[in-house]
Amino acid sequence: MSRVEKILENYYSKGKENNRLTEDKAHMVEFLTTVRYIDKYLKNGDRILDIGAGTGIYSLYYAKKGYKIDAIELTNSNIKEFKKNIKKEMNIDVEKGNALDLSKYRDNTFDITLLLRTNIPFI
User: Fold this and answer.
1) Do 70 and 48 contact (CB within 8 A), yes or no?
2) What are the tens digits of pLDDT across the range 25-78?
3) Whole-model pTM?
4) Is 123 a domain residue?
5) Distance from C-alpha of 33 to C-alpha of 80, rounded to nearest angstrom
6) How many domains does the chain have?
7) Residue 26 sits in a domain of what CATH number?
8) Apex 48 CA angle, 85 and 110, nearest 5
9) Does residue 121 lie in a domain region?
């Protein structure tokens, strides 16, 4: 495990990401504003790649709306949380990975790519 992966696992293992966008009204504004702008670019049947998907709040939201989601996440703790929330009817594929190696995906596979960041204190 790389130094960055260790820092991320330590940070996310404390459960900070799972409720980050729903913990209060201020954080809900971030989520609602983000999806409002993403929605402007989506069409029915679009396929979404979510890089650094965290615990999947955006992926799950769009999967509920019927979109096909491929999500990659670097930390095992976030992947575990994410997978707990996937319903049978959702079309989501979640795998461990990062933005530095997207070779598993063919060019022109996705209609939109999400790469949203959080404020993580790196040492």
Assistant:
1) yes
2) 877 888 899 999 999 999 999 999 999 998 999 999 999 999 999 999 988 888
3) 0.82
4) no
5) 27
6) 1
7) 3.40.50.150
8) 150
9) no
